[in-house]
Amino acid sequence: MSTQFQAFKNKVEHCLCSPGDGVFTVNTAKERKAALRNKLYGQTENVDPLWRDSLNELPNSPHKAVMLGISSDCGGGILRGANWGPLFVRSALIDQQPQCHSFDLGDVRVIPHLLHDKYLNNATISNCQKALYGDENNDYYVSPLSITEDVCDSFYATFKDKGIFGIGGDHSISYPLTKAYLKAKREQGKRTAIIHFDAHTDLLVERLGIDLCFGSWCTHILEFLPAPHHLIQFGIRSSGKPKAHWESTFGVKQHWAAEIIERGAKAVAAETIAQLKADNVDEVYVSFDIDALDAEFASATGTPEDNGLTPQHALDILSAIADEFPITGADMMEIAPFTDSSLVGQSSSETTLREGAKISAFLISAMNK
C-alpha cells in the first residue's frame, strides 16, 4: 500500500461515511437505509468496518468509475429533498441496472445546515470539526462543498486513471466535482469540456448574495475550462433571458430543449461532436440535472419543467458523444424522491428514479470504458 494511497484512505475514513449514510437523519427512512446496507453488505448493522475494509480494494478495482454520494441540498432553494438522492439512486441502480458496476467510495459526511467553509467563521468551523470528527484541532473541512473538493483533489492525485461519478444532492455540488476534475485534467495536459444537461442555465453570478449555489455553479467553473465555450448546455428552457444573452455574456454554447426537439437529438449531437473535435477536446465530463427531462419523466425534483427532453433525447446525445470521446467524470443531480410535485396523471418519484438510474448507468458504463 503506497504512502499516497494511505494518506488518501485516511482522509476518506475521516471525511466520508458508508454509502447511503451521508444524509443526516434520526428516524426518517431508517428502513430504506437498512435496505441499502443489506443490498451492499448482506447485513444492516455494523457496516462501517466493512466499508472501511472495502477501501483497501480501490487501487486494484477493475472499475474506472468511482461513486461518491453528496447528500446536501443546502445549495438549492426551491423545493428541498435532493439530499435523499444518493440513497435512492444507489438502490435504484442495484435493483434496476444490475449490469452497472462501479467502486463505491461512500458518502460525504454532511452537516445539513452548511454549504461551503468560506461562509463560516473560525468558531463555527471549530464547533463543526468537533461535531464531525470529535476534534476541533484538525485540518479537515466541515462543509459539503469544501469536503467534496478536498476529497476529489486527493482522489485525482492518487488515481489518474479513474474518475468520480457524483450523486447529489442539489446542483451546487457539481461545483467542487467539476472544479477538482478540471484542475486535475489540466495538470495532466488534457483538454476538457463539460456537457451539461439542465432546464436552467445555472449561470447566475450569485443568488440572494450567495455566489456558490444551484443556480450559479456553472459561472464559477468557467475559469477552469480551456475556454468558456467548452461548457456545452443541453435542454435549457426556463430562463428570463434568451439564448443569445447567455452565449454572448459568458461565451458558453447552448442547445435549448425546443431546438433539440425540433432538429432532433442526433443532429444536435453531430454538431456538438464537430465542435469538440475542432476544439481538440480529449475528455469530457457530464453533469446531468434530472430536470433537463420533461416533467412527465422527472417530477420528483426541486424545479420540474414542462416542454423538456425525453430520456431518449438525452441518451441519443450521450451515446453519440461517448462513441467519439472518453467520458471520464460525471454526476447525477437534483433527484428529490420525497418531493414529487406532479399532478394527478403525471409521473411519480418512481419514474424519476427509474429514468435517473437509466442515465446514471449509461454514464457509469461509459466511464468504465
Automatic annotation (TrEMBL):
Gene Ontology MF terms in the entry: agmatinase activity; metal ion binding
The keyword Coiled coil belongs to this UniProt entry's keyword annotation: no
Keyword Metal-binding: yes
Tree of life domain: Bacteria
Keyword annotations: Hydrolase, Metal-binding
BP GO terms, sorted: putrescine biosynthetic process from arginine, via agmatine
Homology family: Belongs to the arginase family.
UniProt-recorded name of the protein: Agmatinase
Naturally occurring in which organism (per UniProt): Pseudoalteromonas carrageenovora IAM 12662
Gene name as annotated: speB
